[in-house]
Design goal:
By secondary structure, the chain is mostly helical. It contains 15 helices and 2 strands.
Length: 292
């Protein structure tokens, strides 16, 4: 069955209730239908669908409201989270019942559920509902959509998400420790595999500075043909963003200043009609790699 319309119907019924015992009775009815009409592996998703519709009308809040209870206490500077009292009851108590309960054990399950209506279980890899994660509303909706598309149970989805994110973080950390000095300049400039590498701009900036210094000292004689080492000149040679280059150049400030002063170069030195530094200085030829 489709739980979307059923969930909306339950949410509309809840709007008519103001007595906690009636609300508890509705929650029990919802859980009974989920248990009776939904196969084990889809019960958590059915509950999430119902919860989502209820939260559209009764969203989580950070201040007390009528018919709300304090779901999580204020901690570490974060405000408490208040939820509608239906969520005291509207939760699957254990994943064991979700996976293993049989027809003969349903009454026992409901009895146990009623005994634990005010117990909020802590998430674990085998016992978890979306409500227990205390997510922001937008994040929770995104997660629910992702679960619907993936067809995975929540605990498995979280394991997969952790694995992917962990690989991303460790991958970035590994890249930050890589030595790019042996990567050919031509490859670093044009090969797509290096485009997003976190150290690419820094490595190319270093090589561009060396290329300009070499060109000024060995390839030209007249000062009018020399190039001043500037942020824009480095950007033209490397293709990196000037905002990124600006930060990197702070490391070479004294070296750059010394070189420019040696030849009396300044920003006006690079105003050469009909000439482009990227065409005059072949960085890949002058500095084929990053090895000094």
């Amino acid at each position: 069955m489709s739980w979307a319309q059923t969930a909306r119907n339950f949410a509309e019924q809840l709007q008519q209730l103001n007595d906690e015992s009636d609300i508890k009775e509705l929650a029990t009815e919802i859980l009974t239908q989920i248990y009776e009409l939904t196969e084990a592996k889809k019960r958590k998703r059915a509950l999430a669908t119902v919860s989502k519709e209820i939260r559209k009308i009764y969203p989580n809040d950070q201040v007390p409201r009528p018919l709300y209870f304090e779901h999580t206490f204020a901690k570490d500077g974060k405000p408490p989270i208040y939820k509608h009292i239906i969520f005291k009851t509207l939760t699957l108590t254990t994943s064991d019942w979700d996976e293993l309960a049989t027809d003969g054990s349903r009454e026992e399950w409901l009895s146990q559920q009623q005994k634990n209506t005010e117990v909020i279980e802590q998430p674990s890899d085998s016992n978890m509902t979306i409500n227990q994660l205390n997510l922001e509303e937008e994040t929770q909706q995104t997660l629910e959509q992702a679960l619907e598309h993936s067809g995975m149970p929540l605990d498995e989805f979280i394991k997969q998400a952790i694995a992917v994110y962990a690989k991303t973080i460790t991958g970035k950390a590994r890249k930050h420790s890589e030595d790019l000095s042996n990567v050919p300049t031509a490859e670093l400039l044009s090969d797509a595999q290096w485009t997003t590498h976190p150290l690419r701009a820094s490595e190319l900036t270093n090589r561009a500075i060396r290329a300009i210094k070499f060109y000024n000292a060995n390839r030209v004689v007249l000062n009018k043909d020399r190039w001043c080492i500037t942020q824009s000149a480095i950007a033209s040679l490397t293709g990196s963003r000037q905002s990124t280059i600006k930060k990197i150049l702070e490391r070479y400030k004294n070296d750059i200043s010394s070189h420019n002063q040696t030849y009396g170069l300044n920003g006006y030195s690079n105003r050469k009609p009909g000439k482009d530094i990227s065409e005059e200085i072949n960085m890949a030829e002058l500095i084929p790699n990053g090895v000094d």
